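Supplementary notes for students who missed Thursday's class. We covered one full example, reproduced here. Read the sequence, then the structure, then the short commentary at the end.
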Amino acid sequence: MQATPTPSPPTTTQVRLTALVLAGTLCAVAAGAVLTAGPAHAGVLADVSASQVAAQQAAIAAVQQGTEAERTAKGLDQLHREAALDAVAQKWSDRMAARSDGGAGGSALVHSTSEPAYDYSRTMPAGWRGAAENIAYNSGSGAAMQQMWMGSAGHRANIDNGAFDSVGYGISYDRAGRMWGTVVFGDYYAGAWAGTPSPSPSSSPSASPSATGAAVPTSVVKGDDRYRTGVALAAKVASAPTSAVLVSGERLVDSVPAAPLAKKLGGPLLLTTSGGLSPAVAEMLRATPSIRSVVVVGGEASVSPRVVSELQALGLSVARVAGADRYATALAVAARPELAGSTTAYVARGSGSLADAVAVGGTAAALGAPVLLAPPRAAEVPTALAAAVSGRTVVVVGGAASVPADVATALGADQRLSGDDRYGTAAAVADHAVAKGVATKRVLVASGDDARLADALVSGAAGQVVLLVRPSGWGTATTAWLTGHQVAEALVVGGSTPTR
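Structure (token representation):
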């Protein structure tokens, strides 16, 4: 359905991005100021049939899958689906459907900010730093609704916003059978969630250092956001470094191969916003005169020329390592003199979840070996990747669902490290590290959630074992590994608040 886009007025004086309103079919709006939580609201529709419930869940799944596919294609972190945001989105979808049944019809398509009791910016859990809402109605499927949002610049900007780390979905139906959809996005680094997170296929809860059952002393390194956490960890990684490696904190797929390079250079792995140098990083670089050079990993879409200019303005020499895509960027890092002589290469999936690739970063860094990324199908294995691993011991990280058997065969894999899930795979990598002589007196632990892998990524530069954890207990595999090894300290990177 075609519609004419018109400007959408901001809901607050601090907007996160420019949004558009498409009259009659779609609306998108963004907010950027923390507001006081408003009253909750009871469900509107009581006569929902079992078939409608099934259709609703299928539609939500289609929208979620479409969102995840888009963010994967853009190299962005996956969003963490939260039950609290699901509730906010569902209540507004119910409300729009009820208003349509009440005679409003298509004019019921208005943002929740029009009714204070439903206003997403008031009713979503406190602690957010940025938020947005997409709404739409149609007579088709969830996939069709997602395509409507993807076809609108304002809605797609919300989906592609790298600052957002959390999401909630709601779908409801009016009596004419029309589907009303709401998606609520949030940026929640510093605020703990009220309620229980809702599971999604690619996410899991975040880290909590007090939840481990293993009798291992823990300490915490964290900052107010991923950029400051990286800076805080830098002091633990190297003293008086002469170099640093800088990567995007918004497009982690280009950042995954960087940990072994940072370790070889004897410097920290730092994160920056793509559009400009993170203030926390700029402050750290000014305060560390021993750092004279910075290696930027990733193309200009990941780390913009403006960032490079700001680094040079600080008197630093800057070199960029990048390729045409994520696979080529990893190969370019592996070709650096610091890593080119390694006889081993670790290979993990380069699409979808990056948890396995991040988990092997510390071990690869300790052993001076590169981390390369594999495509999902053997037919897509680049010739350059096959050539890069030829003659090396190839260690595949992750199960067959992550790196299929035909891909492993095409790469001449010698060994596979995997577990029942990402936590078990991280433990399998840790066992491999021990077998290779990597010290385990101290190990690093960080969130294994897809939306919050940045802390685990920067942890890899320490060149130590990195384990992935969840909130309510660190999981059987992680706890068993900590209990079964002589670990003097577990250094929790990111702390007990939701870490991304």
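Commentary. The chain has two domains: 5-187, 209-493. Residues 399 and 418 are 5 Å apart (CA to CA). If anything here is unclear, bring it to office hours.
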